[in-house]
Input
Amino acid sequence: MASNRTRNQDQILQTLQSLNREIAAQDLYIYLQENGHKIGLATVYRSLDVLKQQGAIQVRTMEGGISVYSSLQRDRHHLNCVKCGKAEVMDKCPLHDLEHKVSTDADFKVYYHTLEFYGLCGTCQQSEKGDDRPQDTEVITESIKSGSHPHSSQHCC
Ligand SMILES: [Zn+2]
Ligand SMILES: [Zn+2]
Output
């Protein structure tokens, strides 16, 4: 890939690679400032956008609509617990083969993919079971058959 990146874009790409974690644009901007890189926030946003379109970085939109950026080496997926908010990292990506398949079958150049799982973590499953909720609440539905007469109004001619 021919790269005609600007100095700022290179800087941001390198920073994402060395950070090796997901970071929001705002936080990346602060990080760059703290490390003596004088890049404006607008430039950070613009550079991230360019890098995204080049397929050089990946973007994930979190709950609440905040986009977090990371370098491409991070092929990681999370198991998000909806109860305690814990996000476990899956030890393996289950989509590697699929990605190749999409590339050939759909004639689509895949840059990266996202995959998130939501549910209950082990700890929260345990606490769910521990609840003193009665398991066998049988709902007794008494279907009362009311002897309603069919009021069929028959017209006798
Ligand atoms: Zn949990
Ligand atoms: Zn993956």
User: Anything to note?
Assistant: The pocket of zinc ion (ligand 1) is lined by residues 81, 83-84, 86, 120-121, 123-124 (CB under 6 Å). Residues 140-154 have pLDDT under 50 and may be disordered. Strands lie at 23-24, 57-61, 67-71, 78-81, 87-89, 116-119.
